Amino acid sequence: QGPCDLYANGGTPCVAAHSTTRALYGAYNGALYQVRRASDNSTRDIGPLAAGGVANAAAQDSFCAGTTCLITVIYDQTGRNNRLTQAPPGGFNGPAAGGYDNLANATAAPITVGGHKAYGVYVAPGTGYRNNNTNGVATGDQPEGMYSVFDGTHYNGGCCFDYGNAERNSRDNGNGTMEAIYFGNIKVWGYGTGNGPWIMADLENGLFSGVNPGYNANDPSISHRFLTAIVKGEPNHWAIRGGNAQSGGVSTFYNGSRPNASGYNPMKKEGAIILGIGGDNSVGARGTFYEGVMTSGYPSDATENAVQANITAAGYSVGSASSGLTPGSTVSLRATTACCTDRYIHHTGTTVDTAVVGSSSSATEKGNASWIVRAGLGNGSCVSFESKNTAGQYLRHQNFQLYLNANDGSSLFAQDATFCPEAGRNSQGTSLRSANYADRYVRHYANVVYIASNGGSNTFDNATSYNDDVSWLVSAPWSP
Ligand code: AHR
Ligand code: AHR
Ligand code: AHR
């Protein structure tokens, strides 16, 4: 069974079901999404490995080998054809031709589900999907529910990383003309405790964390790597729920009447569907989407709890990193980008770069490219790298560039020097995620080493060859 079988059992069937990672019905065996490759602009549908199963990422990998691919369509598994495609211009223009939004890079969000490789939808600012001509989605004050699974560490304070119900003309048609899940840390409209990110409801001209505009004390900051986010609404009643998509249940962060602000009761939902953008095509937000559905009718908490159990059982994971990073061992870290496979992470004094190191290199150079793996200074389930030839000095980032510095014992240093290994994002070796900037990975760029986000605003965040540049082969140390 899939989430949509559970919603149907509960009397609140899915009217839209989107996922690039897995089938959302036990019997679904159709296309999940479509990719388009740059080499010849041809497209390929990607389906599940088997009915009800995980996406066939290998089919994407072979189709996209040697070129790049974009996600062009996220199909609707309900049979209603509520598919998501490149969002058109609206109140705001997107950055692509004709004011459309960008399409997501098809390999930018690799993960595993139940041990099988799959790809999420990586939304960098400017990216957006939409359907303004839907079938069966709630309109007016009709009841509906929705959930989605996001990367809870990938967000920003731009407007608005949303999934759900929006205006059919891509414009701001006034309060109550949307009802979508929002995830991020923008505080312009609403917010909860801590510094965010928060799950909120985008009801148009307002992200609501509870009954009040602005602050509501029951909406916590929540940033599970895989995050289940829920919003549902019916006449003068709505709720926010959320939890860890890898384990445990979902908690209720709001359950009550429509906001203390005019225009939201009754609602004036229009029934379009958006992903990664605001209702008026605001394109400032980032996030990652793995799966999500919209229902007809207001789902019970019990139905949603069963869906959460189904999600946790699906087994979302960042994938297993190479086994070479055992605390106490010494390693060298070799680049995997085609330009640079003779280069290793290396230091000269405090300066960190990639350098060509080989058997004829000097003993000093070999030591400069060798690292003692330590349990992460800031998180024992991650790692830190102590210099082989400069005891007590560790790789750390500062202003997003890597340096070799002495451990000063501060918690900032511990965080800056801690990296969490994941399966290499180009399928080779290991990628190293920053412990305190979770959308950034250790990356070489022009042979200098940074923590970079894919397609972010710094030069070294450039999306070109990102997955290769952040994938490192854990090798035998040049200086054992
Ligand atoms: O409600 C927040 C945002 O305000 C909506 O997503 C957008 O349409 C408007 O700019
Ligand atoms: O590298 C990003 C931040 O820059 C580090 O966390 C901090 O040390 C510096 O301000
Ligand atoms: O670091 C070497 C190369 O520099 C990277 O592969 C590329 O992203 C940048 O141009």
Overview of the molecule:
By secondary structure, this protein is mainly beta. The chain is built from six helices and 35 strands. The strands form nine sheets. Strands 2, 3, 4, 5, 6, 10, 12, 13, 15, 16 and 21 form an eleven-stranded antiparallel β-sheet that branches. Strands 1, 9, 11, 18, 19, 20 and 22 form a seven-stranded antiparallel β-sheet that branches. A hairpin with a 2-residue loop joins β18 and β19. α1 packs antiparallel against α3. The longest helix has 14 residues, at 301-314. The protein is globular, with a radius of gyration of 23 Å. The chain starts with a helix and ends in a 5-residue tail after the last strand. 56% of the residues are buried. The mean pLDDT is 96. One alpha-L-arabinofuranose binds next to β29 and α5. The active site is at 204 (nucleophile), 280 (proton donor). One of its GO terms (molecular function) is alpha-L-arabinofuranosidase activity. Residues 333-474 form the Alpha-L-arabinofuranosidase B arabinose-binding domain.
